[in-house]
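ok so i was messing around last nite and threw this chain in just to see what happens. nothing serious, just curious
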Amino acid sequence: MNTDFLIVGSGIAGLTYALKVANQFPDKTVTIITKASSDETNTKYAQGGIAGVIDFNSDSFSKHINDTLIAGDGLCNKNIVDFVVKEGVDRIGEIIQWGAEFDKDPEGDFKLGKEGGHSESRILHHKDVTGKEMERTLLEAIKKSKNITLISHCFVLDLITQHHLGYLVTKSTPDIECYGVYVLNLHSKKIEKIVSKITLLATGGNGQIYRTTTNPSIATGDGVAMAYRAKARIENMEFIQFHPTALYETSVKGYSFLITEAVRGDGGILRNHEGVAFMEKYDPRKDLASRDIVARAIDNEMKISGTEYVFLDCRHMDTEKFKEHFPNIYNKCCQKGIDISKEMIPVAPAAHYSCGGIKTDEWGRTSIKNLYASGECASTGLHGANRLASNSLLEAMVFSHRIYIHSIEQIENIKIDKSIPDWNAAGTNAPKEMILITQSVKELKLLMSDYVGIVRNNERLLRANKRLDLLHEETESLYHKTEVSPQLCELRNMITVAYLIVKSAELRKESRGLHYNTDYPKKNKLLQNTIL
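result:
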């Protein structure tokens, strides 16, 4: 298959880009591929909202910029922060024009929420399912476009570069080029190649490498792993954001239901098992401190008490207003037998967001020619050492627009006249036992949660590295002699991403933002980004 524009991933980053290039070039082909159903993305699970300066009477660009820089703990690229905040207002306006509905008050003004790290109320939201509303809007627009093909249940195996043409490609190879991807068609079970002039990776996050995460099952770090194998630059992978308040459920493994930060923005209070509000001990902003601080505070309180969760107290809040703003959370609590007007909600931190990823410039370009990255899989310089709440959807829209501007200037000059070989599956056989894959996934999740979680130290990182080496060796052996499957490829990608996180964490000889190492409790002003 040949296409002009190829987008891997169907979240907000991929869909906004696809719509723009399709409208710009009605005669060119735009192809979106996703490994699950079209709406199963990290975007869909975003509850809180999208941050933007809407009310200039009380808010300003400078305030939003400053809040982002403070959260990023000295590692944000100030130029990137500046244009994302300023250009973000136009991008929000675009998705509203496309049909996204954000909550308004009786006077017709947007209801603006407040979340941790924000000095003003600037979060636009649709109830507590903002991401789902934005995803719906974009998919409806995609369906109306005649030159966009959306292929679901299509698993990307690898990026095609000169390596597949027989050349030796290393990180020091100049002008590495991307020619498209190899994919496993989950319907036909065949491995096919998609050759494209422009490729955008918008593959989302990697939360599934941890035991509990707010990410869906698809979040296995595929884009970052593929880019790393293709010798793209990867940076700041040690900064994994743990959302402070995921609903604690003893029977749940893997996906944890998110209790959005907006609940604390509306007045929710964190309390320990003695009923004492504890956040004032850790930060003057109390429950609205940035996520890294709140997550570490909860982790410390759980260790002090020897428990697996703390409580989010909403009993003093107006129940009817809670139902209106957070209907999804209210219904989930009801299903679990929790009456939020009388009982506190048990919560614990869960892996939520990767602030690092594929290194890009201000136009979303990776270190590989004709390959761009946007959304959570990219490291743009916006988040630094810790993402400010509700900046992720904003970042995705701003960078996908910038990639659109840059790539439409390049498309006419790109010609792929090389003969791309078919995927070589010689010497492989059907897997004999799936237990070899499923057990390795369990081991990976346990070691990452126990050794590379909210608080780390050198001994834990060393142990994680040794165990990852063994998992890598076993999985590579299985990969080279077994027919590829989504399960095997996801395991391989998860091990790669886990290695990148551990390696980056080992390189950072300090504690900063989301990376807290008890062997280096202070910041190191000389240390900037960790690039692999």
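not much to say yet. The CA atoms of residues 163 and 169 lie 6 Å apart.
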